[in-house]
Every structure is written in C-alpha cells, then in structure tokens.
Design goal:
heterodimer, A: mainly beta, 7-stranded mixed sheet, 4-stranded antiparallel sheet, about 50% strand, B: mainly beta
C-alpha cells in the first residue's frame, strides 16, 4: 500500500499568483498522477508524472499553466500558475500500487484551492 | 482510446429499495473497471473492481457489479439502499499507456436516498 500526503491541504489565493502543491508518498512509486476535481464534478486527469522524464499532459492542460516536477520516486509537485477563479478546485495526487491493470489506486487527501 | 460513461448524473431511491447505477465503457481490449464512492468532504474509497476473473464482482457495503462484455457495461447494484449510501459514485476504466495503466474517471453519479 501507499500513503500519500499533500501540502497545503487548502489555500486561498489571489488572481494572478501561483501556488505549488507538494505530494509525498511513503514508498517508491513509478507513476504519479495529478487530477483536478472542480466543485460538483468528476476527477479530470491533468498529467502523468514519471520520475526522470517530462510529465505527460492531457488534452486541455499545458505545462506553462501546470508545471510539474518529479525529482525522485517518492515526491512530486504541481504548480498552478497565473491563477484565475476558474482554477478553484481540489487538486489530487494519486498513484498506483504497481504496473498491473488491477493494482489499487491510492489517493492523497487533496488540496482545496480557492482563487479570489 | 478508453472512455467511461455514467448514464445518470443523479439517482434517487427510497431507503430499502434497490439501487442501480449505470456505467458503460469503451475499450479496445479487455478493460480493468472500478467503482469508487466519495462521501461528502471525504476521499475516494474503492468499492469493487473487475479484472477479467468472475464477471459478477462483489464489493464492500453490499454492492456488486456485473461485467457484460456484449453490452460494454459495468453497472453497480445493491439490493437494498441505506441512508448511509448517499454519496457520489465514480466508474473508472484504466487504459494502457507507456507500460502502465491510466485511470479515467466517469463524470460521477450522485445517489440520493430518501427515508
């Protein structure tokens, strides 16, 4: 199993600023995923972060807006840049327990971001 | 490409009556499918998963789901709803990419349980 922690747990930010969210896993994992869950919505995948390579972004998400770092097998950061109220959301870091299709997915507690 | 469609945004039932939450998927190969539940202001919890073993999968809290390849469906059911079942339910399919599997979430179905 994997236990995931995120910092900060919540934040209120001003329009035009940036916020970096940290994700720490208590074990080494190959892939980490960053999702966004807007109010009343499902989880939308932002990007997949592999250690030692560039993150892979989903359609509608770009590196300039959501730069990601993955310096080692237990840590990743997601930055929300030049924020606007539309970025208000819960940001979740997740990972899989292995490379098999049925491995359990582990979720961080989320970072609740409000942009004013 | 893989995708998952949850046909109902809201399902409303009375306590003690059956629950049916519908999920259809598209996949170019045999998929792995999951159901998660999210209670208000809580994290996601795995209910059950299908991974090409038995087509009828039993999960926690009395929920089960049946994989029907011919219908590309993986509907979630429960014989008798309880008030504590009121929550958001997500159907998830995983697709292969870069040597691993990427989870894709459905839009979610909100289950409302009336006394």
């Amino acid at each position: 199993s994997a236990v995931i922690s995120q910092k900060p747990s919540r934040d209120i930010c001003q329009r035009g600023t940036s916020l970096t969210i940290q994700c720490q896993v208590d074990s080494q994992v190959t892939m980490m995923f960053w999702y966004r869950q807007q109010p009343g919505q499902s989880l939308t995948l932002i990007a997949t972060a592999n250690q030692g390579s560039e993150a892979t972004y989903e359609s509608g998400f770009v590196i300039d807006k959501f730069p990601i770092s993955r310096p080692n097998l237990t840590f990743s950061t997601l930055t929300v840049s030049n924020m606007s109220p539309e970025d208000s959301s819960i940001y979740l870091c997740t990972t899989l327990g292995g490379l098999a299709a049925d491995n359990e997915q582990f979720f961080g507690p989320g970072t609740r971001l409000t942009v004013l | 490409a893989q995708s998952v469609t949850q046909l109902d945004s809201h399902v409303s039932v009375s306590e003690g009556t059956p629950v049916l939450l519908r999920c259809n998927y598209s996949s170019s190969y045999s998929p792995s499918l999951f159901w998660y539940v999210q209670h208000p202001n809580k994290g996601l919890q795995l209910l059950l998963k299908y991974t090409s073993a038995a087509t009828l999968v039993k999960g926690i809290n009395g929920f089960e789901a049946e994989f029907k390849k011919s219908e590309t469906s993986f509907h979630l059911t429960k014989p008798s709803a309880h008030m504590s079942d009121a929550a958001e339910y997500f159907c998830v399919v995983r697709h292969a990419s870069g040597g691993s599997y990427i989870p894709t979430f459905g839009r979610g179905t909100s289950l409302i349980v009336h006394p």
